Amino acid sequence: xxxxxxxxxxxxxxxxxxxxxxxxxxxxxxxxxxxxxxxxxxxxxxxxxxxxxxxxxxxxxxxxxxxxxxxxxxxxxxxxxxxxxxxxxxxxxxxxxxxxxxxxxxxxxxxxxxxxxxxxxxxxxxxxxxxxxxxxxxxxxxxxxxxxxxxxxxxxxxxxxxxxxxxxxxxxxxxxxxxxxxxxxxxxxxxxxxxxxxxxxxxxxxxxxxxxxxxxxxxxxxxxxxxxxxxxxxxxxxxxxxxxxxxxxxxxxxxxxxxxxxxxxxxxxxxxxxxxxxxxxxxxxxxxxxxxxxxxxxxxxxxxxxxxxxxxxxxxxxxxxxxxxxxxxxxxxxxxxxxxxxxxxxxxxxxxxxxxxxxxxxxxxxxxxxxxxxxxxxxxxxxxxxxxxxxxxxxxxxxxxxxxxxxxxxxxxxxxxxxxxxxxxxxxxxxxxxxxxxxxxxxxxxxxxxxxxxxxxxxxxxxxxxxxxxxxxxxxxxxxxxxxxxxxxxxxxxxxxxxxxxxxxxxxxxxxxxxxxxxxxxxxxxxxxxxxxxxxxxxxxxxxxxxxxxxxxxxxxxxxxxxxxxxxxxxxxxxxxxxxxxxxxxxxxxxxxxxxxxxxxxxxxxxxxxxxxxxxxxxxxxxxxxxxxxxxxxxxxxxxxxxxxxxxxxxxxxxxxxxxxxxxxxxxxxxxxxxxxxxxxxxxxxxxxxxxxxxxxxxxxxxxxxxxxxxxxxxxxxxxxxxxxxxxxxxxxxxxxxxxxxxxxxxxxxxxxxxxxxxxxxxxxxxxxxxxxxxxxxxxxxxxxxxxxxxxxxxxxxxxxxxxxxxxxxxxxxxxxxxxxxxxxxxxxxxxxxxxxxxxxxxxxxxxxxxxxxxxxxxxxxxxxxxxxxxxxxxxxxxxxxxxxxxxxxxxxxxxxxxxxxxxxxxxxxxxxxxxxxxxxxxxxxxxxxxxxxxxxxxxxxxxxxxxxxxxxxxxxxxxxxxxxxxxxxxxxxxxxxxxxxxxxxxxxxxxxxxxxxxxxxxxxxxxxxxxxxxxxxxxxxxxxxxxxxxxxxxxxxxxxxxxxxxxxxxxxxxxxxxxxxxxxxxxxxxxxxxxxxxxxxxxxxxxxxxxxxxxxxxxxxxxxxxxxxxxxxxxxxxxxxxxxxxxxxxxxxxxxxxxxxxxxxxxxxxxxxxxxxxxxxxxxxxxxxxxxxxxxxxxxxxxxxxxxxxxxxxxxxxxxxxxxxxxxxxxxxxxxxxxxxxxxxxxxxxxxxxxxxxxxxxxxxxxxxxx
Length: 1252
Fold this sequence. Notes:
Elements: H1 3-6, E1 12-18, E2 21-30, E3 35-37, E4 46-56, E5 59-69, H2 70-76, E6 82-88, E7 96-107, E8 110-116, E9 119-121, H3 146-168, H4 171-186, H5 193-213, H6 216-231, H7 240-258, H8 261-276, H9 285-303, H10 306-321, H11 330-348, H12 351-366, H13 375-393, H14 396-412, H15 420-438, H16 441-456, H17 465-483, H18 486-501, H19 510-528, H20 531-546, H21 555-568, H22 576-591, H23 594-610, H24 618-636, H25 639-654, H26 663-681, H27 684-698, H28 705-721, H29 725-742, H30 749-759, H31 761-775, H32 778-787, H33 791-798, H34 804-809, H35 811-827, E10 835-839, E11 842-846, H36 848-870, H37 884-887, E12 895-902, E13 905-911, E14 918-921, H38 927-939, H39 948-976, E15 990-996, H40 1017-1020, E16 1021-1025, H41 1029-1041, E17 1049-1053, H42 1065-1079, E18 1087-1091, H43 1097-1104, E19 1109-1113, E20 1115-1117, E21 1127-1130, E22 1133-1136, H44 1137-1141, E23 1150-1154, H45 1172-1179, E24 1183-1187, H46 1196-1207, H47 1220-1232, H48 1241-1244, E25 1247-1251
Parallel strand pairs: 12-15, 15-16, 17-18, 17-19, 19-23, 23-24
Antiparallel strand pairs: 1-2, 1-4, 2-9, 3-8, 4-5, 6-7, 7-8, 10-11, 12-13, 13-14, 20-21, 21-22, 24-25
């Protein structure tokens, strides 16, 4: 060195670049013994060395540089020579500013450690949270011991391998790097300073592998390596702070995996020591401050000690203050400071903290290019803070920006990046929050998708995997809660169980995962009623509470959940704190143990006390506490309980923003509390306040449909109970309008059925009808009944609406609606199962969940399009319930008779196409009696008409019920419409469509009659049955349009179906049908007979597409679960209801279902008409003959023969499917008039007609 340089050598740096880019160990400081560095390149590569004078802490000035090709340098340094390289001025190449002495040693094909006099390496490898450091070798001379040379070679290769791993991600590289470093350590004596360097590099590499692959052994070994490096180094050595820093980072990393407090304590201690050993002007001081602050932040997150977060902010603030504005690590330091400020906000709720957090993180992001390796992490962190501020202030821009930033973080990194799952999970969390605020289903679907990706991208051994699983479970639970699909609830519990299983007991997140699991188990108990679920819920929530200190902010949640579960366990027999309370409440409602409700209230009171008014979940805790206090009041009658319940419920409402979807739940609870106090004290003000709260909750634009529906029912019921029938009717209508939004088309079949059962859809429509009747609003009564029946068929029917008029007004909108409708229609009648779809890149398999997600997305688009249509003035009523003046047009001839049964009365409504509706009160019977007398008929329906059980059923049940129906229901009705109660000498002429509700749906009312005599309904009138008036109206319209259509008959016969009992007479039956058709003039080419092995599922399904008349003579079955798997048994399998209903049979006119149970329906949902007959009607057959239960193989051919003889009586020109009801009536009369002494009522009564 020249003397001018030597005088200031302590302030000099040498920056080394290879081909213009800084190499991994690229800066060497002065003021130390000779140091080495590694260069990897070929002989044509250019190495540049720049000497820089450190003017100040943050400013360097280049005073000389030299560049030389490696090949030239090798030649110059051959034979162990030292090269003297002149540095030139940056202003003029003619000015020499100094000399750098270089000595080279060849490592294989690489130029390896070169010695620069008077320099020391201080290279930093930096990420956002951990400023770890690595080194080059020191004191390596050409004459060193062979073992040292071999070790240094291994070290040099490992550095290159590690660099390639960080770029390419090949695990073989990191494995080889670690192996080489382990050998280098083994080859080096403890007295050699390089051993500490090798150990530190080894520890960093092991930690890198742990972060990528999550193997616990790697982080254990990393800590061991760093610990040894520290122990080998004196405190006075300038490298000691670096080794302490790396050790602290590894200990903090292991804490994140195992949650042992000793690790994070040791990490803080080592970082503190590193700070103390570093003088204030040292360039690494800011990094060591921030590492210390990060560890203090980590401990605060786990244990909640306020001093930790205060110290973290202090140290991270110091780091920022010591770093110049242009310094490359400043963005990371700002981001770290923002993280700590955000955490203090979460604890103390001070707006200034979250404002500062967002400000600092935004500055950090602005200082980074998109290519900066820490940009994704900073952007995601900014999104987290914006998410937190949204929860406090509710500003929509914050959650929009949060989602945007989380999405940017995801987009900025490739799929193999180890942090990708974390960014996906953060994005999913924000999307859930926006769903909770706006109720957009797409957000919830996207949340589940992103959480699922995070889980799939993460190995089970990775420390973040449990958190990703728990987040996924929470999103699934929210989906179930608001949309009712059971698969989401099962997925929620499955994922949360995995999260708990993957987390050791001492881990700080274990209570959170236990609380989430317990809460979801409580939800499943409410849905399915399995006591094991509520017991498991309370057990898990108890553990969550026990593992959480009182000072931690999560404790109120756990107490609240536990309290609710303890409460629910009571009913049938007489944040972790919050979760525990909810579960205790649940168990109280079930088992009635007073201790459960006491514990629930106690835990919820603690939760409320621990939560500030500004805490987002405080209203939830108050509402849950209120519910528990109301429950205890109902048990013990203590006035203080209901007073406190009302007070806390009102506080919950007052603390909730008007746009919050949760407000409707709090209003519902407030209304319930006020109603309970009204019942106890009789204060009219309480009654009015309760109804007002229910109404406000039901009409809220932001309420979730399920919450709004519950509120509407309460509105109606409380109003009715108080005698305000007008208010009650308004509430019932609101509830019926909400019903399709709760039991919506996006649900799978089982969940749709379960939702209708939970919401008691049949009961709701009947109650609304009774209320309207009592007010004399008979037109409205009919409309309301039709709204609440066959919900699924009506929803599916809307997808097939005639859009011709709309096309005239807005063709593009109509086409878009038609496209979405057809897509939805395709999947409406089948369970989602994995399928393959074609993509340009090949075949992609869609999972059941993906199919469901796609369907729900289509439903949302459909709803949006329908709202757009209704904004067109002439289409304001588009797809809204049909009004009575239109519905009555379904009765083209004859009358419709509705018999409505509810807990408030039984009534008949009678009307035709014109004239006033006639009302017949049926006060001699009530709904309870009807349910009792029809129950056995439903239970004892049998396909074996010859068995002893069936004969007993006839004698003891069916005839007795039909006699009661005759006397209590039909005689008053027939008197009202002047139908004489006597046997007509001729055939009946009166046509009646029976519209029955509740348990009456299963009664063959056409077979009712007195105990003696030869008179009954079948001999007096021609009967048909109605599923809904709207479906009958559509069938009538189709019959008019299709009167001149081409006719084609398909007849199916299955005398010997594999796996079924033989029914040999079906061959004769079908032969009679086809012969009758031919005799009537049907062309032979238009008569398709499919018998035995010819009648496969595929062939029959295809034949239906082009037929106008269809006859099935085969076995039939009713699916007792959802109904959609009801089926005809064909030669090679089942032709199910779902497959039939998915068709659009434009040519269909008449179908005869000569099969058992073709019109049985669901016991618990009779009004849904989920049976084969309804499916054929929906698919396009306006007139259908079917069976209510099992039929005799002997009788079916006789009935079919008589039916077709009547229908074909006038030849082809006289064919009319609306004659089918008359034809069936005559056929049954012929069957009854036969000489068979065994012709009992159960043999002729199951044959019924639906439609025109």
